[in-house]
Write a structure and sequence with these properties.
2 copies of one chain form a homodimer. Chain A has 417 residues and is an alpha/beta fold. Helices cover 43% and strands 21% of the residues of chain A. In chain A, helix 10 (237-249) packs across helix 11 (265-281). Chains A and B meet through strand 2, helix 10, helix 14, strand 13 and strand 16 of A and strand 2, helix 10, helix 14, strand 13 and strand 16 of B.
């Protein structure tokens, strides 16, 4: 308890120093971190091996072990991500608008850091580097509390980051990894409203609900991604099949994978049997509406009302034949999670209507839902995804870790009345 | 309870219809509201007279009665504010950025409404019209819960707004005034996390703390405004005196009035005695540091540690002589409320340093703190002021009631890897 409070206090002081650190200084620190992560790769791998060994003893699933492993290639990719962030335009100090009032006051809005950000995450140790880099880029101090299964790896990465900061004359308290693995560390962290400005939990729904229910600090989060693809009447059906395969199969365990396929009834007969056959080959279980069952035979499991809002995170797919765009949009409104939806269409008006009417955080035309990701959208990396609309909505990059203050230049103006 | 829940449900449905209502439609509705408020002025005045009479029976202070009164002039000014909002560019649908990814995806960010906004406020009935207009402009439905002392006035304004919406074919549930005056209405409202996207409380610190402590819906708020003016060594001292008088005296009971004056020691002897004399004439009590006492004589009350963070909302002022910019900035960091601070200076570097280093929501050079106000800054009106950095910081206009979604145009792109 005492230790985390101390870390938070030091973070707040460091944030104050960081807020006025010049852009080239922050960039140099980022590049130094990237270099040192590669140069000191062995330290990371050695620490990581301890985590992996421990994880195997604890019988973690293969998927979890896979997420945990850091090898030379993954470390290089971490460093590359940081270099990409370093090269991006600096969000801090950007004046986003400026206008003159009738009385001559020049009024502008300038981006400033939020202050201190807390990140609470599970297995993947690359989050440590990504989150630290995005916070540093945006002038925020960060407290990182990763999963117990990745503790040694996270601490090793944290040491290298702090060393790099010191080498560049940046206070090393800007990035701190909390060395305490148990859940009480989270409980302590989320009560520190006087020191933390924002908490971003990343992980399973259980972790996120735990953070939201206990936090006095503002939280930005998403619980789940129930992503939809709507294949419209005019869709290029080959394109539709390729997008659906990619959205469902390329990585089924992530939040931007498709969970529900909606098909316009006018093309259902031509599209669905082949699509379902393809999914069968790829090992995807289909849970379909009555029309899907009628078109695609008995291998289709009847879908239930509980399936529609379910995030399977697995090779399972809900399928519904709809009367058209209106029904597709209504279905998404009713069962969706405001995460990511895509329409496949050749019709201009329907593309525009879908974009306008679907208020999910990411809405695509003729592209896979898998692009709903900070890296893929050009943010360099992402600090998280928000499916609530306040402050940020969708994948969040460095710019989303800033706010704006009003700056006003006068020549002695006073107010009347 | 049941009634407020029903209102919230209807608001959510109305918000969904409103989100796709065209910009000219929303503009026409705003202009209709402005016209009808003026045309049906008598209804408002009659309702308002009941509130005022009731208020006098309850022995409300003169200041509260004054805030409550609506006359022809104030109603015209309400209508003028709405017309100004109507003429502003429409924030909804604005694409704030757009860029192309190497794979050809065209990625943009489009402004969309938040959904349903709840406003909880005290005496001033003009908030009903301002808040309704800003929400309508930004495509949000709104639930308005004003103070019991203004209930009849608020209901009358609400009826006129709903009538105007109907005349323009906009669902009247977009703007609803909660007709229940007791505090339980607030308690019910702040629990409706499934229907409300944001709550903005406006009023005294007690009301705001009550909302924050009980709300499950995100809250944007500010508790108090402890605003500072720093008179730098190089200040034009006449300008400094005019700014200080305006900031302290023009309307001492509001959050953007100056509460603390910081004076550079190099000009203290020249500036402070005259300034304090002027304040004395204007009836301002001075609570000064030892140097201020030494310079300005025995009428200066010794300031205490408790005074520095105090929002007097009255003709009282804390005064401190400081060694320079650094001490001024440190003092503001330690005792300020992140609301509004101003520097009076002729020095370019100090102006820039103050703007950069002070991270309050509004930072001014050579202008009165009283300009920290949505109307004054050109936002048309303000829905509130935020002194927390998440989502919005400073006076909030219609644009601050939106968020952005990602819109992505593809030609069949799928993700690898």
């Amino acid at each position: 308890m005492e230790q985390i409070l101390e870390m938070a206090k030091r973070a707040k002081m460091a944030a104050s120093a960081l807020a006025t650190l010049s852009s080239p200084k922050r960039k140099a620190a980022l590049l130094r971190i990237a270099d040192n992560l590669e140069r000191r790769e062995n330290e990371i791998v050695t620490a990581n091996e301890k985590d992996v060994e421990e994880g195997k003893k604890k019988k973690l699933s293969n998927a979890m072990i896979d997420r945990l492993i850091l090898d030379s290639e993954r470390i290089s990719s971490m460093a590359a991500g940081i270099r990409e962030i370093a090269e991006q335009p600096d969000p801090v100090g950007e004046v986003t608008r400026m206008w003159t009032r009738p009385n001559g006051l020049l009024v502008g809005k300038m981006r400033i850091p939020l202050g201190v950000v807390g990140i609470i995450y599970e297995s993947r140790p690359n989050v440590t580097a990504d989150a630290a880099a995005l916070c540093l880029k945006s002038g925020n101090a960060v407290l990182l509390r990763g999963g117990s299964e990745a503790l040694e790896s996270n601490l090793a990465i944290g040491r290298i980051i702090q060393g790099s900061l010191s080498e560049e004359g940046v206070p090393e308290e800007v990035v701190q990894v909390i060395p305490i693995a148990d859940r009480n560390a989270i409980l302590v962290m989320v009560q520190l409203e006087d020191y933390l400005d924002l908490i971003i939990p990343r992980g399973g729904e259980g972790l996120i609900r735990f953070v939201v229910e206990n936090s006095r600090v503002p939280v930005i989060k998403h619980y789940k991604g129930v992503c939809h693809v709507f294949v419209d009447e005019s869709a290029d059906l080959e394109m539709a099949q390729a997008i659906c395969v990619n959205a469902k199969v390329q990585r089924p365990g992530v939040c931007n994978a498709m969970e529900t396929l909606l098909v316009h009834e006018a093309v259902a007969e031509e599209f669905l049997p082949k699509m379902v056959e393809k999914f069968r080959e790829l090992g995807v279980e289909i849970r379909g509406c009555s029309k899907t069952q009628a078109l695609c035979g008995k291998d289709v499991v009847p879908v239930t009302e509980e399936d529609w809002p379910t995030e399977y995170l697995d090779l399972i797919l809900s399928v519904k034949v709809v009367a058209g765009l209106d029904e597709a949009v209504s279905h998404i409104e009713k069962y969706g999670s405001s995460h990511t939806e895509s329409i496949v269409t050749k019709d201009y008006a329907n593309a525009q209507a879908f974009l306008r009417r679907v208020n999910s955080s990411v809405v695509l035309v003729n592209a896979s839902t898998r692009f709903s990701d900070g890296q893929q959208l050009g943010l360099g990396a992402e600090i998280g995804i928000s499916t609530t609309k306040l402050h940020a909505f969708g994948p969040m990059g460095a710019q989303d870790l800033t706010t704006t203050k009003f700056i006003i230049f006068g020549e002695g103006q006073v107010r009347t009345p």
